[in-house]
Predict the structure.
Amino acid sequence: MRILVINPGSTSTKLAIFENETIVETKTIRHSTEELSKFENLYSQKDFRKELILSFLSESGYSLDSFDAIVGRGGLLRPLKGGTYFVNDRMIDDLKAAKYGEHASNLGAILAKELTTNASKEIPAFIADPVVVDEMKEVAKFSGHPDFQRKSIFHALNQKAVARSVAQKYGRRYEEMNFVVVHMGGGISIGAHEKGRVVDVNNALNGDGPYTPERSGTLPLTQLIKLCFSKKYAKNEIKKLIKGKGGLVAYTGTNDCTKIQQRLRNGETGELELFYRGMAYQITKWIGKMAAALKGEVDAIILTGGLAHDTKYLVPWISEKVSFIAPVEVVPGGNEELALALAACRVLKGEEKAKTY
Ligand SMILES: Nc1ncnc2c1ncn2[C@@H]1O[C@H](COP(=O)(O)OP(=O)(O)OP(=O)(O)O)[C@@H](O)[C@H]1O
Ligand SMILES: CCCC(=O)O
């Protein structure tokens, strides 16, 4: 079985080709803030990212018809149970209209479906464990006012995949362990995994959580209200301050932490180090919150996502503050592409039934 995996992120497009469970080709294309800011909205990036996929296929010598399935990372849909879903017209309509909001992963289903229709044979298109997987406990949903509800929007696919792999390393089942999983990418989500269920997590997309390479995270509320009524910014500009131009972009001018690390290695200190340390500090506080949600019964804290590659600065800064809670496991990057391929394989082999949206 040959599977094409499409994983559009906020700062990258990750592509992979699998023969059954084995990866045979992979490519990560990075997108700068400037490159993506010329598109009016997310959907208008579709053709740009599609061309990148087609070039990847021709560079690696695969035709569309040679695939048995195309699987994309799932985006902002209505709250769903975890699992694998067929991409159907209802899903595409919701994603095109951004009915539940805009996120790079919305393009996963759209691109997967469009490429399957460009093939000259019938190929299924899937998504798996989209960012809207909702397993939150009722008590965790209260925000502090009945007009507002906390929502479960996070890196469900990678968080669950790495938690399963760490459980396997411990010789136990995911469903019998407790973890705090910290996905650190363009966005950052920190989830409390209680026996296979993500019972609490920050809403990584919508101003909840630590600041990230390009998001503000939780901001002081009354200052935000003042800014909204100041007429200094339009609504869209304020949204950009929170997502896209917040966090390290606002403090340092870049969302690329490899550049920040390079400058630190070159001996730069002062404000730059403080901004980067500030992000680590906020992450540690959220780990503490999620440990409390698990009553301190934490088998491991798992650091994952692109930023977990930074074992010189970020990983030690976080680990030294939270290792009193539980051992820290580092799973850099992510298993998202593998997790998507495995999901498609399970359906093609008849081990799992794909759900209908
Ligand atoms: N090898 C590396 N060493 C250090 N930092 C890295 C490395 N690779 C990526 N990063 C940093 O990680 C961040 C991006 O992480 P990642 O690739 O997980 O994000 P994404 O997929 O675009 O977004 P998200 O994970 O939120 O969906 C960037 O700031 C990037 O500079
Ligand atoms: C919400 C999960 C994905 C992201 O933060 O980009």
Residues 259 and 265 are 10 Å apart (CA to CA). The pocket of butanoic acid (ligand 2) is lined by residues 10, 103, 131, 153-155, 186-187, 189, 204-205 (CB under 6 Å). DSSP finds twelve helices and eleven strands in the chain. The domain at 2-132+336-348 is CATH 3.30.420.40 (Nucleotidyltransferase; domain 5).
